[in-house]
Amino acid sequence: MTGRILDIRTLLPIEPLLLTPGYSHTMDSAPQAIPQQQPVPDLTKPYDLVIIGLGPAGCMLGSRATHAGLRVLGIDPTPQWNNTYGIWDYQVPPWLPTDGASSTPARVHANGTSRKLPGRYLILNNQRTRSRLITFDTIAVQATILSPTSVRVEGHNITAPIVDCTGATPEQPSGDETTVVQQAYGLVFTYLPKHEDNARWMDFHTPWAHTPHDEPPHSTETFGYVVLTPQGLLIEETLLLGAPTTWKQLEQRLHARIIDVLDIPHPTPDGPVEKVFIPLHTPLTDRTPNGVLAFGARAGFIDPMSGYSLATSAHYADAYVRWLMDHRDVITQGHKPAAPVPWLVASARATRALRRSCAWVMGILGTYGHQLELVQASLLLPGRQFKAFMTPWVSPWRFASLLPLVLLKLVTTRIKARRGTTR
Question: How many Cα atoms within 13 Å fall on the side-chain side of residue 81?
Fold first, then answer.
């Protein structure tokens, strides 16, 4: 259905967020319960590993390092997760707690049809997952990194290898890559029933396309994202990959989609507001510019095609812990190990190069209004092939073998579309 475009700002008695590039922000219309603080650890005892930043990547790394027998200290001034974190059920390792997570069937709506993809998409219950992962000492304060193996916390100098897990670097990459981002604006409805029939993992329908308030449809390709979260039904308008658009345009398109999805003339969101702005061309690395070890989005785990990084952090956590233990003496002495970290071995770098090339092609297609056609073609892959295509750490040979299939799906879809328009 079509409806009048309303200004979302008239519905919410809150101010917009100040965004920092590289981060996904959530702002609540009502305060969240703060998790119970852990006791302050004894900072005079020795530690084998210090983790700066306790988002999902830092907590997963700390949990697995503790499981391997290391004495871990985690440092983060924020004692909770405020963002929305999702992962495919087939990418969840056995040790990652997902109790309390919301499970959404991955349905794709396009061209008047609906198709269910293999697997289900999970949105983590932040408080439960975080509390289950933190099996090590933590302290909610700011810390000063003195060197790659020394940090000052609450007047104590702690000597141990340091891993920076603070998320994507706030500095934008240099050159043309500054304009390649994933951007989204979303609202949560807590009072609506979290029914699976409302879920749409990707909705290519464009209820805003013929409204006078929107820019020409080809100016920015976006899609709808409607998933179940522990807090309620999240409806989001997403620019998958491309140059940043205006927040006003995303707000207008989102409101048109909300009216279309819910079939309510004047929907009133009552949950968190989410703004996402993620640079997609962050390079893979094993260290920050100041020489500190890096993991998670800080190490460039953000997938250039999808913007996901959580599953990649989970995948590499155990292998990275083994790497840290094997080279602990070398790292402690201030030297760089000869062996690369797991995500910088030759095969992993080759897969990343292929995925970046695909992202580049998607960006080129986006300038002509055809990016989402390629995305839809990839969604037509059979079950196992689709899962491999969505997995950033699949072997380069496996990923390369899927590209001709995606191209074939794209050509076939276009031919069918042209035949349909000529009849």
Answer: 24
pLDDT > 50? residue 400: yes
- Contact residues for 193 (Cβ-Cβ < 8 A; gap 6+): none
**For residue 97, what are the contacts with CB-CB under 8 A and spacing of at least 6?**
128, 129, 132, 133
CA dist 309 and 165 (Å) reads: 12
Tell me how far apart the alpha carbons of residues 103 and 199 are, in angstroms, rounded to a whole number. Answer: 10
Residue with tokens 């995948």: 315
DSSP 30-76: SPPPPPPPPPPP-TTS--SEEEE--SHHHHHHHHHHHHTT--EEEE-
The whole-number pLDDT of residue 268 equals 81
**Residue 333 gets which letter from DSSP?**
T
Q: Which of 3, 1, 369 is nearest to 211 (CA)?
A: 3
CA distance 392 to 397: 13
CA-closest candidate to residue 393, choices 308, 334, 298, 332: 308
What is the spatial order of strands in the sheet that 156-159 belongs to?
144-147, 150-153, 156-159
| 111's tokens | 């061209």
Cα end-to-end distance, the chain, whole Å? 25
DSSP letter at 296 equals G
Question: Could you tell me the pLDDT band of residue 260, with boundaries at 50, 70 and 90?
Answer: confident
> What is the distance between the alpha carbons of residues 70 and 317, in angstroms, rounded to a whole number?
14
DSSP assignment string, 192-218: S---GGG-EEEE---TTTT-TTSPPTT
Phi, psi of 159 (to 5 degrees): -105, 115
| Least confident span in 164-173, 321-330, 336-345 | 164-173
Arithmetic mean of pLDDT, 275-290: 90
Q: Which of 26-35, 49-58, 234-243 has the lowest mean pLDDT?
A: 26-35
pLDDT value of residue 423: 47
DSSP-derived secondary structure letter, 175: G
Q: Are 140 and 78 in contact (CB under 8 A)?
A: yes
- Find residue 52's DSSP bridge partners: 75, 164
Phi and psi (nearest 5°) for 341? -65, 160
CA gap 48, 161 in Å, rounded? 7
